[in-house]
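Checked the freezer inventory, then went back to the computational side. Two predictions to log before the end of the day. The first one is the construct we discussed on Monday; recording sequence and tokens without edits.
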Amino acid sequence: MKLHRVLLFTSIQMDITPVGKDLHVLLTSDNIPHIGSTVYTEAIPVTDPEDDGPLYECRSHSIDFVENPDELFCRYVAETLAAAAGQNVLCTGGIYADNPTERDISKLYENIDEMIRDWTVFFTDD
């Protein structure tokens, strides 16, 4: 499934592909497409004492450049999606924004959250 958002300073595309019981996410932007990071997150079920639904602990492993902000985005996507879907997630990619402000970074995370929610609604829709 391809999810796309256009912001004033960049765009975000998230291609989510099921691979068996796992998920692969390719996270890109239209400004200087690149792969800046790869993060693998295991979704480990934990017992919920109140049985409100499944809970997952996430354990992540990353391959990236030192102090690369792409690792933060890929890690965030992998961990958020793994916790929401209860599946292992491999996220590769990078988002480029030229001199982003704190508000720009906040908007990136806000849009990433919306994209993950959209996918989760589609994925869990019976």
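The second is the one RB wanted added to the comparison set:
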Amino acid sequence: MTFNFFKRDHKSIPENITPKLLAIFPRAINIEWNKAGDNFEALFYMDEVEYIARLSEKGLLLEYKKNVRTNEIPEKISLTATGHGEIMSAIAIYQGETLVHEIIVRKPDLSRYLLLLDDEGHLLEMRGV
């Protein structure tokens, strides 16, 4: 999934979309909208944490990503990730009932890898970044 925030077209955001976002994330602030095909993406902050949410044109939440502080990473996820290197950043990706963790790790040679882990800590994908 790619999020593109270079083109912001606030005029094409229907009036009903922001209230739908705020119903799900009531403390969202500094909302920046982007049109992505038939869907809408919102970059915002809530409780000092960055989020990206993707909503349908009817305002249904399709997916959201949340930055996760390294000290808040679940233990199962942290154990798997640290087995691949030092954790640099973490994002929780919520897709309906599914939760995937996107972790960037750095190896001793300073090479970086993106890990995708399921909520049980099983490695789904690993690629260099």
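For RB: Helices lie at 17-24, 75-82. Residues 27 and 34 are 19 Å apart (CA to CA). Let me know if you want it refolded.
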